[in-house]
Each structure stands twice: as structure tokens, then as C-alpha cells.
Write a structure and sequence with these properties.
Elements lengths: L1 H13 L4 H4 L8 H5 L3 E2 L8 E2 L5 E10 L4 E10 L5 E8 L3 E4 L2 E6 L4 E3 L5 E8 L2 E8 L5 E3 L7 E7 L2 E6 L3 H14 L24 E6 L5 E4 L10 E3 L11 E3 L15 E9 L4 E9 L5 E7 L6 E7 L2 E7 L3 E8 L2 E9 L5 E5 L13 E7 L5 E7 L10 E6 L17 H6 L3 E6 L4 H4 L4 H10 L2 H19 L2 E10 L2 H12 L6 E4 L8 H4 L2 H11 L10 H9 L12 E6 L7 H10 L3 E6 L9 H19 L3
């Protein structure tokens, strides 16, 4: 029944009228508007598939099911010429993604592949908690399951006319491990991390296998092939470089290198295009301050000419070439993700499919981009979102959101701070893209960059300088310096704790969604992780004397500096990580610092349940209303 209902809902999604016809008058964004947004393409590796004749695009739409506290995934098909989009299959519900035996809270992204003749789509779908491959006939609409695999499908591709797929560790093996653990307990080995929960999670890659499926016969057999790598049109100029960000070059199939300045730098993707007379290479490059711009170019190896097609701050990803156009997912600061095509002759962008047509009725606040470069040359930027009903001469509270600000301004990393609803409620929002040490990364390994920037305090200092600059400019535009709040998750949480220690008078309230660095976190990590950290960057335990890291632990541990944390703070922690935060809570209680702490059962680094996200967002808004809004 749930699959039939999903198809009905999906049809309603596609035939919704355009945004302009839905509402004459725009209204303020609510928490529900952001919470119920449909997503397309996936979370980890955004997925877009173009048909062999380059006339159709296939992708997945994910929609929240509030009553079920779950997600529905649906396979969509767009005609690139007309933009006509229809839902053609139900891909089921949420399934956890697991990496190396650990969960972050992300779900497995669905995959679809056109058959070589373009007549069918093979796609991954959940049924009864299991991921298998299904086939939908694009002429008749017939939909049937193709595999009954022992493990969930994790990869899917064609090798000629043979369908190849990869399965995770067999489910029966995973269930047997779980049952045995519950009955007899399990040994704490070198890979067990108590920091992420006291139950083992199956390493789904440990028992991964590759298979081939013969389309005519329907026979499946074990195979040794892996997914073919994409053609390496972009690669390091020096193949021996160990730098974290080596210099990249653009190359033609014959190994000819493009020498134009546009063919270097932050090259993202490239495609070989067959023209009327010669082959050309289409490529996407990030450029400008903080690499905030996405620029599309065409290079002719025959003539050496490079032509700019389009440059904008819009975020483009999962692009694939169609006929005379590049098809991409696109986001901008105030536009949620949608499917677009970019004309390769004119650079004109044309919307193909908008999964959230009603969002066009939401009133858009003013947004200003603020750029900052520190003394070392590290670039960062922020989007300053004004209060929706901003009036010059008045003062407003402000909230800092971290730690990426590219594409749609939804809620920062983790989506726990609803930016537009805060603007509608009368807040400035400072959405920050963190500074990156690109100059060091061009000459040092990733481990060397991490060691340097941690031990010399430059990462902490760079973030502080950037945030202080953005806050000062917001104050100059009407933000009240006595009513500034800050939020963060993961790297953003580290910045929150550091700022509350370094700038105790800057923030009136804080919301943090990850526990802090603390000596207690060290023994909770796996011994293999501790050994790797020692070998990689020299990181030692908090109790080793004489190590350069000894002072680092003392300076960065929030519980050891709790007397400097006087800001009222709301903690929204996932269950798997929460234990690391209790030393800080005890110290805050002893010092009389106002705080509230919430634990979200079953949540990991990221909150995956829709109702958890909604609750965290509502508590965040309520916390700031309590401490930053006048009575």
C-alpha cells in the first residue's frame, strides 16, 4: 500500500502549477517550509544519469514523511528539451550508509542506470529494509525486482551490455553478528570506538562482493570487475606530488595539456565533447574569492582557445552533458536545489525541474556577501542575511551559522539552524564559509597542514579573525553587538567552543550540536585510531608530558577551561556522541553557567530522523528568542 500511495503523491508533485501561479503575495518563511523541502540528487555523491541519446535525465527525489518520521525516495525522469518531468518508480525508504563500520547519520544514496539501448532504467530501491535492483521499462512502465542479493546494493554500473553491481556484507552475516553480540557480548578490539556508541555496527565493506547480471538470460554470477574510473581529463601536473592540494592541469585524451590560465586552479569536472569538426573539452572550475564562483569553460585542443560559457555564484554539481547543453543540479543562496540546463553556446540557464514550486511564494530577504582575507592570505566569506522586514536605523539580534555557505542557505552544516525562518523572525544571520589554508595545502601534505595549524593555533586564530570581521560588518549594518548568538556542528562546534573561550563577551547565547574536544574523548576512540593519529600527525594522549600536544589538549578542552564559558548554551547532541560532553556539563553546572542539554536517541554525528531535525531547529529558535529577543 505504501508504494501505491507514494506513486500518487509523486504524481501530485510533478503536476503542481508553477510558483508564480500559486501565490500573488509572498509570505515569510516558516520552520515547516524549510523542514518539508524536497531534495533531489542525494546527500553524499549527488547522482544524475543522462540517457544514451542525451535526451533524458534520471535522478531521485527525496521527500519527508512526517507521520512516519521517515523519507520517501522516488525515481524521476526529465525530458531535457521540454523540461517535462514525471515520477516513474518508488525507490523506498531510508537506509543507513555505513563507512568502515561506523555510521554518521547519512543515508544510502540511490543509483539508476539506463540500459545501453535506453529502453529501461535499472535502479536501487528499498523494500522491507533491503536494497536491491529493480528495472522499470520506459515504454510500458512495468517495474520488477531484478536481484535478490545477500547484501544491500552499494554500486551499479554497465560494462558494455552487462550490468555490474556491488553488494555489501551479507545481511545474514550482519544479523548473526548482532544476535551473537546480544547473547554473549563482544570483544573490544583495536577498531572499536566507544566514542560512537557501545554497540558494534557491521562493517559493510568487509564482505563486499562484485557481481555481473546478464540482461538476456537474467543470470547472476560473481565477478572481479570494479567500477571503471572516469577519464582523467583533470589530474595533478606533478604526479609525484604529496601536497594536500597539488597543482592541477586539464588534459586532452592524447595527453595534450591546456596552457591557458583558466585551465588550472580548482578544477572540478571535465567532459569530452564531440563537435562538428573537432573534439573539445568542457570543464567546470571554481574561482574568485574563496572559490565562491562556479565557472564553465570550453577548451579546443586543436586551436588552444578557451571560451568562458558562464560564471556565477550559483552552486553547480553532478553535471552531465546533454545535446548542446550541460545538465546540472543548481542552488543559489535563496533558491533550493533544482535541475537546470546550461546552453553551451550562450551560457543561458534554463530550469528543467523544481521539486519545490511552492517555495516561490516565500518572501526573500536581502542577502549580502562579505569577503575576508587574513594576513596569511587565507580567504573566507559569509552571506549576511538581513531581517526580512529590515529597517535602517533599527538594531536587530544576529546569529552566526557555520561552517559552509555555498548554495542554498538552508541551515548550515547539519541543517539545524533554519536561516530564513530566523530572518523572518527579525534576526540578522551570518552564514559563514570557513577559511581554508590553501597556500599551505599547495606545498604540504594534509597531515602536515593539520599538525601545523593545530599546534601553532593558526586554524583557531584564522576562524576567530574571520568571524570577528563578519560580526563587525553586521554590527555596522544594524546588528546589536549585545545580542549576538552562534551555532555549530562538527568543525563548527569546535569553533563555537573556541570562540566562547577566546571571546567570552562577544556572544549572548550559543547552540552547539556536537560535544567538545575533551581528554575523555581520547580513551573512547579505537586503539587503531589512536595509533594512526600518532603516526600521522604525532598526536599523543592528554596525559603524556613533554609532548607538543600536551598544551594543545589543555588549551582546546572545553571542560578544562569551563570557567571561561559563561555564555548560555543549548546542547543538541546525538546519542552516539553525547557521552563525550558530560565532563563539560558537570563543570558548567558547578560554575552556574546557564545551559540546557538534549540527547536525540539513535542519532549519530548527524540527525537523520526528520522529527529530530525539526525538534532541534525549533529548540534553536526558541533558545535565541529567549536570550536575544527583548521581552
Amino acid at each position: 500500500m505504501r508504494f501505491q500511495l507514494a506513486m500518487i503523491l509523486g504524481f501530485a508533485l510533478v503536476v503542481s502549477p508553477p510558483a508564480g501561479a500559486q501565490a500573488e503575495q509572498r509570505r515569510a518563511a516558516t520552520l515547516e517550509d524549510i523542514y518539508l523541502l524536497r531534495d533531489i540528487g542525494g546527500d553524499v555523491d549527488p547522482f544524475l544519469e543522462i540517457s544514451p541519446d542525451q535526451t533524458q535525465a534520471a535522478f531521485f527525489v527525496r521527500e519527508i514523511l512526517p507521520e512516519a518520521d521517515d523519507y520517501a525516495y522516488r525515481l524521476a525522469l526529465t525530458d531535457i528539451a521540454s523540461g517535462h518531468t514525471r515520477i516513474i518508480a518508488d525507490a523506498g525508504r531510508f537506509v543507513f550508509r555505513t563507512d568502515g563500520g561506523y555510521r554518521s547519520g547519512l543515508g544510502v544514496d540511490r543509483i539508476a542506470r539506463f540500459s545501453p539501448d535506453g529502453a529501461a532504467l535499472y535502479y536501487t530501491a528499498e523494500r522491507h529494509g533491503q536494497l536491491n535492483i529493480r528495472r522499470v521499462d520506459l515504454r510500458t512502465g512495468d517495474d520488477a525486482q531484478v536481484t535478490d542479493a545477500e547484501g544491500d546494493i552499494r554500486g551499479l554500473w554497465f560494462s558494455g551490455n552487462v550490468l555490474m553491481f556491488e553488494t555489501a556484507t551479507p545481511r545474514q552475516q550482519a544479523r548473526a553478528q548482532l544476535i551473537e553480540d546480544e547473547r554473549r557480548g563482544f570483544r573490544v578490539d583495536e577498531n572499536f570506538r566507544a566514542a560512537y556508541g557501545l554497540a558494534r555496527v557491521t562493517d559493510e565493506a568487509a564482505g563486499a562482493r562484485t557481481w555481473s547480471y546478464d540482461l538476456p538470460s537474467g543470470l547472476t554470477r560473481a565477478a572481479d570487475d570494479s567500477a571503471p574510473p572516469a577519464p582523467a581529463y583533470i589530474r595533478a601536473i606533478d604526479s609525484t606530488s604529496t601536497a594536500a592540494e597539488p597543482a592541477l592541469g586539464l588534459f586532452a585524451p592524447g595527453n595534450e595539456r591546456c596552457m591557458d590560465p583558466a585551465c588550472a586552479g580548482a578544477l572540478d569536472a571535465a567532459w569530452l565533447m564531440s563537435g562538428d569538426h573537432a573534439e573539445e573539452v568542457l570543464f567546470l572550475r571554481r574561482e574568485g574569492h574563496g572559490r565562491a564562483l562556479h565557472a564553465l569553460y570550453m577548451w579546443s585542443p586543436a586551436s588552444g582557445a578557451v571560451r568562458l560559457i558562464r560564471r556565477a555564484e550559483d552552486r553547480l554539481f553532478a553535471c552531465a552533458p546533454g545535446r548542446a547543453a550541460l545538465v546540472c543540479f543548481q542552488e543559489s543562496a535563496l533558491t533550493p536545489r533544482r535541475l537546470v540546463s546550461i546552453d553551451l553556446a550562450s551560457g543561458a540557464l534554463r530550469p528543467l525541474f523544481d521539486p519545490n514550486p511552492a517555495f516561490g511564494s516565500i518572501a526573500a530577504p536581502r542577502v549580502e556577501r562579505l569577503d575576508f582575507t587574513d594576513a596569511e592570505g587565507n580567504e573566507s566569506f559569509a552571506h549576511l542575511v538581513y531581517p526580512l522586514r529590515y529597517r535602517r536605523g533599527r538594531t536587530y539580534p544576529a546569529v552566526v551559522v557555520q561552517y559552509h555557505s555555498r548554495g542554498f542557505l538552508r541551515g548550515g552544516v547539519g541543517n539545524e539552524t533554519p536561516i530564513l525562518p530566523l530572518s523572518a523572525r527579525g534576526y540578522f544571520v551570518i552564514s559563514v564559509e570557513r577559511p581554508e589554508f590553501r597556500l599551505r595545502a599547495a606545498r604540504l601534505t594534509a597531515a602536515e597542514v593539520q599538525r601545523e595549524t593545530e599546534l601553532d593555533g593558526s586554524e583557531r586564530r584564522a576562524k576567530r579573525e574571520a568571524l570577528n570581521d563578519f560580526i563587525a560588518r553586521a554590527v555596522a549594518r544594524g546588528a546589536d553587538p549585545a545580542r549576538i548568538g552562534i551555532t555549530g556542528l562538527s568543525d563548527g562546534a569546535e569553533t563555537v567552543y573556541a570562540m566562547l573561550m577566546d571571546e567570552p563577551n562577544t556572544f549572548r547565547a550559543a547552540v552547539v550540536s556536537s560535544p567538545p574536544t575533551d581528554p575523555a574523548s581520547w580513551p573512547l576512540q579505537a586503539s587503531a585510531y589512536r595509533d594512526r593519529s600518532l603516526a600521522r600527525i604525532g598526536l599523543t594522549s592528554p596525559w603524556v608530558e613533554g609532548s607538543p600536544w600536551t598544551q594543545w589538549w589543555r588549551d582546546n578542552s572545553a571542560s578544562l577551561n569551563a570557567e571561561r564559558l559563561s555564555t548560555p548554551t543549548l546542547f543538541n547532541w546525538g546519542e552516539s556522541e553525547a557521552v563525550r560532553g558530560f565532563p563539560l556539563l558537570a563543570r558548567l553546572h558547578e560554575n552556574g553557567t546557564p545551559y540546557e542539554a538534549y540527547i536525540y536517541p539513535g542519532a549519530y554525528h548527524l540527525k537523520y530522523r526528520p522529527q529530530h531535525l525539526l525538534a532541534a531547529q525549533q529548540r534553536t529558535m526558541d533558545w535565541f528568542d529567549r536570550w536575544l529577543q527583548p521581552e
